[in-house]
Fold these 3 entries.
Entry 1:
Amino acid sequence: MRAPASDLPIALEEVSVVARGVTILDRISLTLTPGAPSVLIGPNGAGKTTLMRLAMGLISPSRGRVTWGGRESVAPTHRAIVFQRPVMLRRSAAGNIRYALAAAGVPRGKRDARADELGSLVGLDGLGARPARKLSGGEQQRLALARALAKEPQVLFLDEPTASLDPAATKSIEDLVHGITARGIKVVMSTHDLGEAKRLAGEIVLMHRGRIVESGAAEAFFAAPRTAEARRFIAGELLL
């Protein structure tokens, strides 16, 4: 059987997104390639979530084009996204995962075992029967990751996955990101936490006012930022 065509690289070429006369993304060019996580940083309203929704294929550009593995108009079969505040279905944790497996086309007879595997993978052993909405914030975020992994994605988008989590829950999510990357899944995530960006990123993309200010290898970005905006942001100054 022929392996599925890869959605990578994802290439955004001179892409703009305009909604109700407001430019949200302005002439963005970016290529997301296999490897270590690409981490989007920047102030609120910079366009990070919109960029991920665009790369996921949930919205279309107003101008420019997006390609997945060199192809246009590709269904997001091999891509998954976890939003900052994932919605939990009114069922158990395991039931949430089984629902995602059904949506991914996994045969009914294999869903229970696969749900157990995914629950264990994200550290939810023993919590499968608990109502998903009764889980803690960190547990819900891990459950959302399990649901996303039910698709066996090639690319996983994470929108502020550790926002509002305590340090222990944050570490558990970061450990999962490392584990997911080790499985060969490309992670593209946004964060406000520069420490987290340093710990996880292979590539940094700094955004401001809908544009990419600077991008490149994370080590070089933090050691010797090229732009004044990047230097101010790293120093903790506000980008206005």
Entry 2:
Amino acid sequence: MPNKPAVTKAVIPAAGLGTRFLPATKAIPKEMLPVVDKPAIQYVVEEAVAAGLRDILLVTGRAKGALEDHFDRAPELEQALKAKGDDERLARIWEPTELATVHYTRQSTPRGLGHAVLCAAHHVGDQPFAVLLGDDFIHPSDPLLRRMIEVRDQFGGSVVALMQVDSDQISQYGAAAIEPTSTDGVVTVTDLVEKPAPADAPSNWIIIGRYVCDPAVFRVLESTPPGRGNEIQLTDALKTLAQMPASEGGGVRGVQFRGRRFDTGNPVDYLRTIIQFAVERRDVAAEFLPWLRKYLDDLP
């Protein structure tokens, strides 16, 4: 399919209430919870930028002003660091402001992921775009999103990221019915089921929070009724797109991902993420790892 528009924009839904992290998220957006010394949302934006997407739209909600502040300049803090000659920390607070052009729109009521994506229609226009959920991210060494964009360029339509899970985890995600393609690690998605019981799941390949969407998804979302949880589900719209002809923007492919994904949306996985990133950081691990080993050895 020649002459397909390039993917240049990323949409990051970040309007969730973060109830699993209360009381911490009563006043702090869950996306701003730190992974070592950098908020989770910055890893997500960096992931988009690494895939060549420097036009970022954050879909936020009430009490999410800290997200805008993080990607904006902080003159008083900058001046204080300059006065101390602390160039290292000064560079670190400049880093998020220089990553990309970050825009914001508000999802006034939490009506589901599909509705959050629909809030991006005016900014995205008639162009394909990526969607990255704001509370999980892919390891920087695993270029999943770049690969998904390549698959969109090859096949057209929309692309989802798939991971294989044990059957007892399937009911937490959307599960995909899949057929192989001639490209290794790429499948055609023929059906999607949101949070099925294990016995009803079409496969154990689940959708994770990375999508490359054809703009036809907006037209479908506008007519998608509320589904599970009385919310407009992106999964339902993708299911419709999977059954539409390519000439109308239909067709959904899946990239089978076997790399490292970090879920900061629940407390236990969040703690695992912090520990792994601390161990991988040379400046932190030198002191942290010996302490961690001793702590574990001393446990009764």
Entry 3:
Amino acid sequence: MATDFAQTLDAHGVAPLRRVAATTLQVNVGRRCDLACHHCHVEAGPKRTEAMSLETADRALELLAASPGIATLDLTGGAPELHEVFRPLVEGARALGRRVIDRCNLTTLLLPGQEDTAEFLAAHGVRVVASLPCTSSGNVDAQRGRGVFGRSIEGLQRLNAQGYGRAGSGLVLDLVYNPLGPSLPPPQPQLEARYRDELRALHGIEFDRLLTLTNMPIKRFARALARDGRLEAYLALLVNHFNPATASGLMCRDTISVGFDGALYDCDFNQMLELPLGSRARSVFDVDSLDELAGAPIATAPHCFGCTAGAGSSCGGSLV
């Protein structure tokens, strides 16, 4: 089985993989989370202490101001809302006129001290991208923890109460699906229709789009597959379903990923594997503008087959 991603790109005539002008700055504010999901490539959890400093967050905002081509600040974690830099980053980016995404696990909205978070997100027009890997409690709880489905539904209802997912509100609520095991996501449009029908009928929940993501064979998920003797088979599945049509839309081409310590990466997955942007270690303190990174080569490894298998996978859902 050939697992050299760069060679595969070359063999299909879509190499080399290089950056275009960045449009999204994705910032991982820290790895603390109230959940410890089986598929989490960040290995986030309640006991994680890594967190972005206010100094690093301020520098990210300075670079955002100095990089007019970047229209969106995409905040992730861990659970972003649990970190002290989350609200300053939201407020700072909105003051610059940039769009903001909050990658929310929904259950944080119910935690003590987070009672006003849904209202805060609505007040600042933040787009919420929320994890919901299934519409049934058994599957969600098996992947994310006992009782998580019920709390997720309550979180969605709180967002709907603020206007999220409601026609004409301007408040965007997207949901994220990822497979429960080592398989590729089903076609996104058909799955979205099923989600919409079931969530509306059973819970009165409305949302805008469903985004399908492929589980990355790294960190926590990779170890679970290895324990079950299924890692090689999953890698083979990804390699055998390589789709060259996905290459032009890969998120690493127009997204810059920033770690909690300010280090720069081509994507959140490379960040977790400590593969620096373009294979050259740099941080937010080493560049004057993020626009200068256009044209840089993109660091790749076998896990990249996860983003190019089948219909493709990105933080914005399927690619083709």
